[in-house]
# Entry
Amino acid sequence: MAWGFFTIYAVATAALALWAGRGTASAATFAIGSGQMPPWVVGITLGATLASSATFVLYPGFVYADGLGALVGFSVPLVAGLLLGLVLFAPRFQRIGAWASALTVPHWLGARYDDLGLRRLFAALQVLNVAYLVLIVVGCAYVMEASLGLPYHVATVGITAFVFGYTALGGATAHAFTNTLQGLMMLVVAVTVFASGASLLPETWASLQSTGLTAPDSRLFSTPFEVLGVPFLIGIALTTQPHLLSKALYVRGSRALWTTVAIGIVTYATFALMLSAGAYARVVLPEGVAQDRVVAEYLQVAFAWPWVGAAISVAILAASMSTLDGLLVAIAASVGNDVLPGRGTVWVNRVVLAALALATLVIAWSPPKLVLILGQLGVYGLVAASVGPLLVGLFYEGRLARWPAWLGALVPLVVHFGLALTVVDNPGISALVGIAVGIPLSGLAAVVPASRSVPTSLESSWRA
# Structure
């Protein structure tokens, strides 16, 4: 049954990618498509990209293990932070991006600071996203192992070949339209899983209350600040990431952008209903289930009709793929266009994707115990490096000195990894400390005299 649903899904996804690939003939169309996609398509794509196998597979495992703190932390403050970040950053990023004809976030930063070296630095830092690629592939493989009966290693090879392949074919357009299909499937699944435990709500609430708001032994939710403050602040910071902020370049005009943001946040907030699987699992599963496997185990218990569980398993795979292909487009476009500016081609992007596929597969072959922590460590490193230079570039309406942006990127990176690998268990805490260091360092770019005046065309973009 599951194989039938998966085959239908795979054929539909491949067909959309083939259709999208017909118009992907340049590095620009690979990176952002036509730049005039329908806002509802980009909105669902944004929501699906915000979610991933973390939302649908790994976050519920933390709710199962840590209780109320994880349920709260991965929902309300995180959604609020993502919304605020998009509202603050996306409109200005779109306007300056149009001025610079930017295709990627590193391209945008290089244009804003008039520094090709900075552009290449941030393109090179995209390698940190490999950790999140591994997280998603591992989450997919666990679901395929449970629902399709595939051995874990066969599943990792299959999912890597499939998603990397269709992304290489169609780029941003394939990413957007396949994510629309995936996002619609994910919406149905999130609501269905939430409804599946309606009869368990009294017992579930009692179980969650018994844990209290914090879980002293948790790596992520041991204090009230980790439950409420860290997810909110990290949510704001996450919107600076290339695979998210670049969505502002997929549409043209402020009205289309606001529609995109609204649909994206509502879509992601609905996906957060998937956390209920971890809450219900606290009641119906025994203690000691591995966190990364909680959702797969819950689905087998919750749905008596095999076809329902099979359909949901396939949609969870779609959730994983939705973020995976978005990351791949952002990384390949950045490496292809920003490391070799002016010489990037679709084929260069495809070679980059092949190298990423190999690296991801090697690491995913034998994943760490808590793969979410690995993914967060890499992604949050990129967040720590980029927030300071990006904020100054967005909100200071003048010419910017270059060297403070380098300090504002590299020092937070060292701080984040230095803390996370030694004394700090929660990667979100180490990232926030890095960001707190990076913002004032980057702010020096607005104080130190710059070598040139602000281009007239850029001044007009501020007034638009």
Notes: The mean pLDDT is 81. The domain at 2-371 is CATH 1.20.1730.10 (Sodium/glucose cotransporter). The CA atoms of residues 91 and 254 lie 7 Å apart.
